[in-house]
Amino acid sequence: MKNLYVLALALSSSLSAQTITFKGCINLFDDQTFTFTKTSVDAYNKNIYMTIPINDQQPCGGLGNCEFKIQWNNTLTRWEFLADSGNGDFVNPYLMYYNSTGNSPAANPPSNGFGTWVENTVVTNGQCGGNLTAANSTLTGDVHSSTLTTLNTTKPKIQIFPNPVSDIISISGLDNMTSVEIFNMNGQLIKTDQLGNKINVSALTSGVYLLRATAKDSQIYEFKFVKK
């Protein structure tokens, strides 16, 4: 938990402040406002936002401790509003809302008035008052409300390969890196590299890791990979 908290603070200080303010689902989250901070960018150039600090100390009614994350699910082509299960690691989060209407070009999530943020009643049991709207929620800040909010379509796709990997992992589409860090799934820093787009991971034990590449413009790109 402490390692994850330190990492979150480091990320928030290295990136320009991009925040989202949320208030809603009062029956489960209580009558309080939460602030999401952009913490990183995923492999699809989508921003990731989290309520910081992640320290298991944000009490709220129906879920006990409220720690939230907004991120893009590329497999299902939708934005997701996730609530942590109480460990601060988002390993098995609860899906609270999702929005898949006209959002794929944007780097940031839609507002509560664009598309439909669908309440996941399987988790909420209908206690959130239905889909997010301006009448039952606040969702402001670094959100978009138009399909004109698009990424630069000329930007190359950033990816790592091979995955799974035995010895050398390569990063393509990102030529302005300042550093590469590798963390285990407990948030512990395992390896730091500043030598280029190829990283030797042969010394790592088998398992799942997070590779975090920092670019010269302070953008952070994260990738999960499997070491064979």
Automatic annotation (TrEMBL):
Source organism of this protein record: Chryseobacterium soli
TM ranges: none
Signal peptide span: 1-17
The protein's name: Secretion system C-terminal sorting domain-containing protein
Start and end residues of each Secretion system C-terminal sorting domain: 160-221
Keyword Signal in record: yes
Keywords of this entry: Signal
Xref: Pfam families: Por_Secre_tail
Top-level lineage group: Bacteria
InterPro entries for the chain: Secre_tail (IPR026444)
Keyword presence, ATP-binding: no
